[in-house]
Design brief:
With 381 residues, this protein is an alpha+beta fold. Helix content is 25%, strand content 24%. The strands form 6 sheets. The protein has a 4-stranded mixed sheet. The chain has a 3-stranded mixed sheet with strand order 1-9-8. It is elongated and about 110 Å long.
Length: 381
């Protein structure tokens, strides 16, 4: 009488309601623990390795799992070839789960599937390139056109990106048969290495293009003008499609990403989409109020009104005169912050008038809400 087979869920150490991800994770753990390469000559580990593979084969397939849950081993094994492990031997295991073993033990372990296009080079997309440019705050306000220059790869004009002389073609490598890698087996363990005959390419170009030496592309200096929109902010990236490196063997070109760095300005600053500056006024202008013109960052004149009794640090807003928003047609505001000019030297006449003014308005400036009381003693000489 044959020995009763162990429950698949019990073998993997999962519950019967386990998700596919949990089942896969449990199998990966057991495969790592009992893999023949880690347990050479250990028959018990080999047996557990086979049991885990058999359990995973059944439970990872939704239809097989449904049959197993309903009928147990008999019905499930009917679709797996019978035998103590459903007809699975070590080669079957590596063949069926090659991708998983490749991920665990190194690319290509146990997998016999073709990984590259046969008969010639594989077209690959070119690299994206990155460049940083610095612009002034004024340029970011008004926008500008700027010339960009750099080295990048271009598709070879002679061979049109094939890497070969006209009328010739690449030949499949006779050693790896187009795989680009050669698989070796030592006992139960299988591993792959890049093919030394073709350098891991899977093909051999016997008549390479003399202009690009078979590389399908050449490096040249490129120069073009890019439009930087008004309202661009520091740290923003502009993507210029197709201006990266040309692809290899006919692959698509990469893109160029331009990172913007906005340099500080001595008179203006940016707050979100607002253009911020300050204006220095005399004490009478703050007290009496006034109308005045200021020059914005782009050289245009803006008229602002200083209200009577204007405090220092007041923000006077001119709507719609800030930075353009990158999306839409709206703009931020121009924000003017008031400052007071305090003269360090006065003429005797000005000093006398200012002293008289002080006596007229008094010197008690205590604010009941400030919590601080001051007492005037005397003016300094």
């Amino acid at each position: 009488m044959s020995k009763a087979k162990k429950d698949f869920y019990e073998i993997l150490g999962v519950q019967k309601n386990a998700s596919p991800e949990e089942i896969k994770a449990a199998y990966r753990k057991l495969a790592l623990q009992y893999h023949p390469d880690r347990n050479p000559g250990n028959k018990e580990a080999e047996e557990k390795f086979k049991q885990a593979a058999e359990a995973y084969s059944a439970l990872s397939n939704p239809e097989k799992r449904k049959q197993y849950d309903q009928f147990g081993h008999a019905e499930t094994m009917g679709g797996m070839g019978g035998g103590p492990h459903g007809g699975m031997n070590m080669e079957d295991i590596f063949e069926n789960f090659g991708d998983m073993f490749g991920d665990i033990f190194g690319a290509g372990a146990g997998s016999s599937r073709k990984r590259r296009k046969k008969g010639g080079p594989e077209a690959l997309r070119g690299h994206d390139l990155y460049k940083e440019i610095a612009i002034s705050l004024r340029d970011s306000y008004v926008g500008l056109k700027k010339e960009i220059s750099y080295y990048r790869f271009f598709t070879c004009d002679t061979c049109k990106g094939s890497g070969m002389k006209a009328g010739t073609s690449a030949k499949e490598c006779a050693t790896c048969h187009g795989e680009g890698q050669v698989t070796y087996r030592q006992g139960f363990f299988m591993y792959s290495q890049p093919c030394t005959n073709c350098g891991g390419q899977g093909y051999i170009i016997s008549s390479p293009c003399t202009s690009c030496n078979g590389q399908s592309r050449v490096q040249r200096y490129d120069k073009f003008t890019v439009t930087i929109p008004a309202g661009i902010y520091s740290g923003a990236e502009l993507r210029v499609a197709g201006k990266g490196d040309a692809g290899v063997y006919g692959g698509a070109s990469g893109d160029l990403f331009i990172r913007i760095q906005v340099m500080p300005d001595k008179n203006f600053s940016r707050d979100d989409d607002d253009l911020v500056c300050s204006v220095t006024l005399t004490y009478p202008q703050l007290v009496l109020g006034c109308q005045m013109d200021i020059e914005s960052i782009d050289g245009t004149k803006e008229s602002i009104k200083i209200p009577k009794g204007c405090p220092v640090g007041e923000k006077i807003v001119v709507p719609g005169k800030g930075f353009a928003k990158l999306r839409g047609t709206a703009r931020g505001n121009l924000v003017v912050i008031t400052k007071c000019h305090i003269p360090k030297k006065l003429t005797p006449e000005a000093k006398a008038i200012l002293t008289q003014y002080s006596e007229l308005i008094g010197t008690d400036v205590a604010d009941k809400d400030s919590g601080i009381t001051s007492f005037f003693k005397k003016f300094l000489g």
